[in-house]
Amino acid sequence: MKIDFKHNQSAHCENGVVSNLLNFHGLPLSEPMAFGIGSGLFFVYIPFLKVNYAPAFSYRPMPGFIFSRVSKRLGFKIKRIKFSSKEKAQATLDQELAKNNPVGLQVGVYNLPYFPDEYRFHFNAHNLVVYGKEDEQYLVSDPVMPGVTKLTAKELEKVRFAKGALAPKGHIYYPVALPKTFDLKKAIRKGIKHTCKDMLAPVPFVGVKGIKFVAKKIRKWPQKVGVKKTNHYLGQLVRMQEEIGTGGGGFRFIYAAFLQEAAGILEEPKLIELSKELTAIGDQWRDFAVEASRLYKNRSKETDAYNKIADKLEHIADAEKTFYIALKKAIR
Amino acid sequence: MKKEEVPQDESCFSDTEMKEVIYAVDKDGKYDKALSSGWETKTIVLDKSLEHIEERKAQAIANIKNGIQSPIAYFMEEHRMDIPTLASYVGIWQWRVKRHLKAKPFQRLSAKTLQRYAEVFEISVSELKHPKF
Predict the structure, then answer these.
(1) Interface contact flag, B25 A110, Cβ < 8 Å
(2) Would A61 be classed as within a structural domain?
């Protein structure tokens, strides 16, 4: 059995699932739109939480938040179920597919057979859609893949019940009670306001302040934890920034695309200018990643090199602060 | 980023059909999806983090040979896990897993506990006890 589901490759897994599922239900929403309305742009630094032996950085809100916010702002509900029993998890999936309902699943990346080996890490907040079952194989639309793929029941069970931080526990979700009409303008405004609030939050580890805080730390790390660990930490920062499904520099470009689309819908030409500004900031993030990776590769001993990239990051934080303040004003 | 600047470097995708989506602007400044075959910067940090795991693995092997650590330490690195992840997979408290990574406490593990580790690593108990490096 195969549901007539359109797979669209996307830059980020959660946006992609949201956009593809809503498109299926006759609510056309591009990936940048889902990202913007769901306020997907974020930054948080969690020094006491260690991931792969380095402090945790995240460029995105908690998994699931983007979809929840989109649903709240467009006025529909999401049915979410987690399981302790693997059998029940599969039975529920089969039932939904029989009802011609494609579903979103949260999965762990480590055991996904179609990912290149380099991408196999214990990261449990990946998202994909299952849209059918043929010859005991599930038909899978993984939004970061160019085309659709297949997984056996066993393979799917393994990734749905991956363990560790953010364990998916078979998490299955799909939109319900979709409205006939919805207020896109209002939803866009709400999404933008929320992002500005998050990024300008008066909390040291969050948003623009969080980015500044990390810049300060980069200056101190070489003395405090040694060059080797500093490089490893920087590597983590860049990986979180640019890896599939997490994003950072790439996220700025998706958000800039959203602002461009929003400018037309809200008839607010100021947003086009702001979109350009954010594109420039995204380019700066990429420059930062290039410098940081060079430092990592060449194992520079001079602490001045670390100060230089810290300057770069601080500069980004300042540019973003100006940007969010202007964005907040433009939307009022 | 401009469309023509989207990196097309060699990466782990090179041998596959996989490409990544990146949003970039065209000549008229309009945003659209573009495909990237990889970016050197990302490849560097990915390779480095894999190197880091290899170093940890080599260290674990040395420690096992010197009778400091148990084979669990090796298999944990082999599966790219850290202690919290492994503890979650076997369903044993972290402080106990930490103990099981040491050579001596490992000797005293019950057959049942060994079986649980072996299942997670998808090997037999004898392979767990006598790993081949």
Answers:
(1) no
(2) no
